[in-house]
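idk why but the lab printer keeps eating my pages so im just putting this in chat instead. protein + zinc ion:
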Amino acid sequence: MSTNRISLIKPDDWHLHLRDGEALRTSVPHTARCFARAIVMPNLLPPVTTVASALAYRERILAAVLPKQTFTPLMTLYLTDELAPLEMERLAKSPHVIAVKYYPAGATTNSQNGVTDIEKVIPTLERMAELSIPLLIHGEVTDPDTDIFDRERLFIEQVLSPLRDRLPELRVILEHITTQDSVDYVKSGGDGLAATITVHHLLHNRNDLLAGGIRPHFYCLPILKRSSHQTALIEAAISGSPKFFLGTDSAPHLRSQKESACGCAGVYTAPAALELYAEVFEQHNALDRLEKFASVFGPQFYGLQPNTEQVTLIRQDWQLPESYPFTAEDTVVPLRSGDKICWQLK
Ligand code: NCD
Ligand code: ZN
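predcted complex ->
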């Protein structure tokens, strides 16, 4: 018998890009419509590298929350070669800034200020380990000669595994994992290691990006992998292991910058994110495990309480718009643009 309605503890999004300026008027309400909290990525230009700038960004986000919505942005700092251990003391004292994001320099959108060599940031990482500040990792090597489909696996071997041997107390979240290798590594890693999984990596594999024509709206980093990796991610998400939880990596870009000869990386999933996760869990007969993945394991890893409100999804078709306004001149195209979505948020 199929379920027509599910209620769950209000979920949170543990990995989100909101951008800045007028884009917030679109991105913030889309996330706040169903997520109570979200970890907001700091990869703005210039990046968010101080507690003071994170708090100012937080105010700009809060100003874009609609009157009927409640939303708590959880802010992060961008790890650069220069980020000082002293800033970690300030972070530890702020209830609103809760983690640090590590982009290897050159790995993805706005990562040019990222870490050039892990050795340069060891003192800051040591201070984070002492203060129990989580490190959120974009896990891909950036050597231009390394095949793009191998970058995540090699990052674990070459950077993450040695780092965790050296700093076993550091709490690490491997963000938006895309491979069986990452699933295995996270499972075997002890309580201080967890991973987020996006809905687009659960729903899609590289054929959707590349077979029968190139589809730029499926282009993201880490890039979609082959279907056996997609299967491993699905198994991890529905496994009931507290080490895997929801992080959309919803990453809006202007349509003109996606549909381009050199398109930007990032998939915009926020307008139907929870509904699409429900679709995946249902396809795999695991709707009963959606709540833990979406609403319980994330706060548990971050040492926070689950939300007290509930949300309800109803089985009812609705059509996602083709695009949304994003700047005065251009729009953003969501995943499943113009398509039917089978779950609807009440
Ligand atoms: C993200 C973005 O656009 O900011 N893009 C993406 O493809 N995921 C950055 C990131 O998380 O890698
Ligand atoms: Zn991201």
